[in-house]
Amino acid sequence: MQVLSQFHDLILCIISALEARDPYTSHHSSRVAEMTETICELIGLDEEEKEIYHIAAHLHDIGKIGIRDNVLLKEGKLNDEEWNIMKSHSEQGYNILMNAKSFEVVADVVRSHHERYDGKGYPDGLKGEDIPLGARIIAIADSIDAMISDRPYRKGMDTNVCKDQIEKNIGVMYDPSIAKKVIEHWDEVLRSREDESNNCMSLHE
Which residue, of 40, 89, 90, 173, has the fewest CB within 10 Å? Predict the structure, then answer.
């Protein structure tokens, strides 16, 4: 996986391509990547695993580059047809990344980041530890950022309410051991998100 580290800057350039269409997606991916790295440290993963999952988190929404604008940029609630189109981004991301053999592990994580621990996620309905570890980590980081971020059609959730939602969904949406570790170190996880959010703002001033 040495090649993944070497391509990290290139990956950031690829993600910046999303920003031209949807600034939220790019900044969201950066915040999720930083929270993912913090969670990896909290659960004791080695440096190679941390690097792989950090990169996968940066790329978890890359498939949205294939979602048409009237769905991706819609400010209101998506209808059923639009929601099905949006959900295809995890598979589209997988297909994009599988063009590079060295990205197979990352591709699997990207494909599965919307799977749920109870098996009711998508696209494959994977359950429990059948879901790649990186995807189980990113699922929590992704949910946190989505819940507490402001969007054009709603205000972000209070962080304490978000914490309650994560806790309520332990064993339902989220891996119990990972989610409990996140709850135990809630402030630390949020701090990594805020640090990255501030970095993104500085870069765009």
Answer: 173
Whether the ω angle into residue 123 lies within 30 degrees of 0, i.e. cis, is yes
Q: Which two tokens stand for residue 110?
A: 């990207």
**pTM assigned to the model:** 0.90
Among 73, 109, 110, 106, smallest CA distance to 88 is for 110
The Cα-based distances of 196 to 59, 107, 201 in angstroms read: 16, 24, 9
170-182 burial string, b = 16+ CB within 10 Å, else e?
beebbbeebbebb
182 and 189 Cβ atoms separated by less than 8 Å:
yes
Mean pLDDT of 167-187: 98
Give Cα 43 to chain centroid, integer Å: 17
* The pLDDT of residue 18: 72
